[in-house]
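Bench notes, afternoon.
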Amino acid sequence: MYPAVPKGASSGDHPRALVVGYDSHNYNGERNTYAPVEGVTYVKLRRIPFEYVPGREHAGLHRVFARLGPNPRVDLSHLWNRVSVGRTPWGVSFEETLPYLNPRIHRRALPLQQKRLFSDRCRFIIGMSDFAIRQFRETLSDAQWSRLADKTHRVYPHQPAQSRRTQYPELGEEDALRLIFVGGDFFRKGGEAILRAVEALGDELNLQLTVISKVEGNDYTGTPPPEVDVASIRRRLEGNPRIDWRRSVSHDEVMSAIEMHHVGLLPTFSDTFGYSVLEFMSLGVPAIVSDLQALPEFADSVTGWQVHVEKDDHGEWVGRHPNMDRRSHHYFESVADTTSQIEGILSEIRTNPALLSIKAASTHDRIAQQFDPSTRAATVRSIYEQALTS
């Protein structure tokens, strides 16, 4: 027996209700796994916390899912960036590639986890962008890809258009041009370049910048390099009257803040997707974004402005995995180049402020075309049903 259809869904809409277990450990994972799907009940699965096993950092266990103790009965497990070793039929959504491991560090774990993807118990593989699918495909031989292609899908995250504004705020000659940056990893996402641009042109162009970030040091890409004085950057943010630095606010407060600004900013050096840009666009705010990884698939010169970042053959920033003696060079060179491009874009906006409302009008269309929640839900429901009949 399967459970009743969840409240709000008709038993005639689908052959039967489904119970899907999920394992998500952050907001992005939740957005991509248990986003609402009609006729599906999602339940949280308990797993063995391998990432906390002392001395096993290089074993790749943090990317393995194994159920812990008694768990609810489910039809499928839908994981996020993890490979299952259990008996329950499962699938996975991923943001960059699978298995989600560093091949230089996890040389032994990589083929073992890859083998799980070929298992009959792995019923579906969902890449969150065309970029993710390309990255995944490049790790496989033609023979391997032929075994996985039929169960591999590209499904964008869901994002409803939700602006409460009746019209885009006008920008008069005497009005401040209001900019907003949202991101945990301030340096990786181009925060220092934004700061430099506002310091250089804040008075001349009458700029006001909101920064929502903890502004902390080294992240998973090694950004910023050791030469960057994080404390000094914080003092510059705090001491600039044109900058409102907020270290931590709720998601609802972030969304409310975005809507009060003219332009969003994500001139990032590395982002598997760029969720803050989705939120900018859903609120009718055009954005200045980098032209790398998945961002060009939905954010471009129609919905905002693009910043060129020097990329490798995979479409990633050249400084993401550099030799240690080149890390600082790539970072400082990229910051300088990005700063110059942002300054040019802000000057262009001040010269032709009509661009703002034109680009803002296109953001809702783009969100509706690519990220409609009902379209995503129907696609995922179909993937689940196919997985259970395969």
